[in-house]
Amino acid sequence: MQGKTKKKRKPKEYKDFITYEPELVIFLKKDEMDLAEENLKIIKALREKMMTVKELHDLYFDNASKTHKYTIKTIYKYLEKLEKAGLITVAGHRITEGGRIPERVYSRTAKVFLREYDELESQWWDTDESRAFSEKVKIAISDLLHCSEPDANTFHDLFKELLKNVYKTERTLLKKAKQSEKLAKLFSTIEFEEIYKLTIYIDIFTTLVQHPELLVQMRKAFDIK
To answer: Is the predicted pLDDT of residue 91 greater than 50, yes or no?
Structure first.
């Protein structure tokens, strides 16, 4: 005699009451960006939609062991830290069929998070570390292209000029990203950790297009005909 097939419960209907609209772009300080990366699963999930604590808790459900990696109390602690840092916020509440107590619905505070430009970091090219790094770059380029090595000071000056213009381009890009829905949409369609890579390539290519004289000076320094 065959056992009866257990019927799946029909998901309960619910209605969200949202009172918050996230900003297009928010710039984060290094510690805020680090916190976002530490809680990347939550940050990425909230990029797609607004969610309740239970839904966020279910992100950490392991199908193999049929248990959650963290308790819901731990998720609340994570959310409290993210909310305090201004990365997420309560966007409204959810009323579920048959439920008595409304559930909080969480949202990111912005569709896109970008690293804030750090003026101090832009001075890296004046450090001994930068000079040592440019020396390694110089050696690698000359060996790869089978050309002579330029004077260390000459190359470092070129390296420094390139970096200055790249950082200048980065500031322009980040400023425009906050004003341009097209750029914000572009950034919002890629993975959180890929945004940094994308901005690097955009900055370098834009700098070389805007300053072709840097390539001419590089070829001259390495004696490339």
So the answer is: yes
Which amino acid makes up residue 90?
Answer: V
HSE-up of residue 19 (Cα within 13 Å, Cβ side)? 6
Please report the domains of the chain, with CATH numbers, ordered by start residue: 14-115 (1.10.10.10), 121-221 (no CATH)
The percentage of the chain sitting over the pLDDT mark of 70, rounded to a whole number, equals: 92
Name the phi and psi angles at 16, rounded to 5.
-95, 135
Q: What is the pTM of this model?
A: 0.71
Question: Do 200 and 163 form a contact (C-beta atoms < 8 A)?
Answer: no
Residue 43 backbone zone (phi > 0: left; psi -120 to 50: alpha; other: beta): alpha
Q: Is the pLDDT of residue 174 over 70?
A: yes
Residue type, 198: L
Angle among Cα 102, 105, 110 to the nearest 5 degrees reads 160
